[in-house]
Amino acid sequence: MSRSGGATTRTWWFVVLAVLVVADVALIAAAVASTRPGEQREAGPIPTFSSGPTTEVPTPTPEPTTAPSSTQPAGYLSAVSATEAWRATPGSCTDDAAVVERSTDGGASWQPVELAFDLRTVVALEAGPEKVSVFGGVGDDCERQFWSSFTAGEFWEQYPDQASSVAFADVDSSTVSLGGASVPSPCASPVRVSAEGSTSLVACQGTFSVKTGTADWAAVTVPGLLDVITVANQYIAAVSSVSTCEGVAVQSVAVPVTSRSTPTTIGCVPGVDAGAGVMLASVDDTVWLSTASAALVSVDGGRTW
Fold this sequence. Notes:
With 305 residues, this protein is mainly beta. It has one helix at residues 3-34; strands spanning 76-79, 85-88, 100-103, 111-112, 124-127, 132-138, 143-149, 157-158, 168-169, 175-178, 181-184, 192-196, 199-204, 207-212, 218-221, 225-231, 234-239, 247-254, 264-270, 279-283, 286-290, 295-298. The strands form six sheets. The protein has a four-stranded antiparallel β-sheet with strand order 1-2-3-4, with no helix packed on it. A four-stranded antiparallel β-sheet has the order 5-6-7-8, with no helix packed on it. Strands 12-13-14-15 form a four-stranded antiparallel β-sheet, with no helix packed on it. The radius of gyration is 45 Å and the shape is globular. It starts with a helix and ends in a 7-residue tail after the last strand. Mean pLDDT is 82; it is low at 1-23 and 25-70.
């Protein structure tokens, strides 16, 4: 081998050795640096784990609440004369019992009547110069019974055989009882069911229907209808929201009722709250209008009060 070749080989070995030494020194320096205390870093969040898949629980949507609407009349009113009348609240089998009252001064005052039986509800009230009768639920089982008094409410006696003569709305308001027979109601939620002779009347919100015997019902639309009664040869209705009357308007519908019958305003009872439970009653040409807080009398068929 020539001297120049050997010198070249030794030069390459020195270069390789130097590179290895430099690399070794760099590794040692890095190891030493890793053992020195440095700045503490802020700890990250601790991871959480679940044992299974998560399901999103939907937020419950509140159900809309609607005030229950009453399907029973505001009350019952029966007139004896221009100065005397009886009235009763519907009552409840499980809550406040019915209250029966009597006025002998044209409605200026009312006296509660003490009953000899546990009257809970009332579905019919009939008063006259000789007797007063009430039909309603009695006792803990609220069984409907018919009671009458011939002594202005001082003494009472039960008359089961007369219960079939009463007209009233049945419990679910889809049927009405007329002459002891249950028949479909011509309208929903009756506020008045009455019968005089062979003629029956059923009033609901915004309409009343009449029929004679087994004939079909004839309906009359009366917007704002509160109650309706028969006076002589016409039907007299208490009506709310009539622009010409600041109170309760009195409207008339002639007899017989036909498909063309429409109400005509004949009077106004000013200052009466139409939402206070308006009840009507009549005897001859005398008409009574009563609420829980007021009572008025008309002696000319409802024209003036």
